[in-house]
Amino acid sequence: DVLHGAVLCFYTFFTTFALLNIITGIFVDSAINSAQNDRDEVIQEQLHRTRTALEEMTALFESADREKSGSVNLEEFKELLSDKRVKAHLNSIGIELDKAKGLFRLLDLDNSGEISIQEFVMGCMRLKGTAKSIDLATLMYESKRMVGHMNAYFVWSERQFHNLHVQHKLISGRLESLFGAADVPDLARTPTCSTA
Prior knowledge:
This protein has 6 helices and 2 strands. It has about 200 residues and is mainly α. The chain folds into 2 domains: about 1-130, Orthogonal Bundle (Recoverin, domain 1); about 135-195. Helix 1 (about 1-65) crosses helix 2 (about 75-80) and helix 1 crosses helix 5 (about 115-125).
């Protein structure tokens, strides 16, 4: 009977262990599904917020565009920013309005003196919140690229000035040989305009 008791204890232990593993598996599976659903809900909520913000920004822009031209100039933009609803909406998405003119320049990507609906909406969405690492990296890249262009321009300018200097010497030499040294003024030392 000791053997039957041991088998019964082993059977009870094994069955309880298996049953608890099944229950634990069900809970873990449920938790994983719940976490996945939560993540999907967060993504959907973020997409909904972004879509709503885009629609609201578009509506704000269209209300400022009195001529229905699809763009606003600086004066219309200042009027838009004087509206309390607009200020509240822009503050709610993290855009602080210190100077309207500076914000207008930031949004006027093509320097046309007007901002289109696309420039306004996308610019405001970019300005939303704080700067992210990608924004700073993009800014650094653009700055380095501009410095590279400026350096190339300076090198080109130096070459052009050098070429002009060489041409000047050649012309001066030819003039000296044609007219003689006494008749040719030194163009490099002769002032072109008086400061009197």
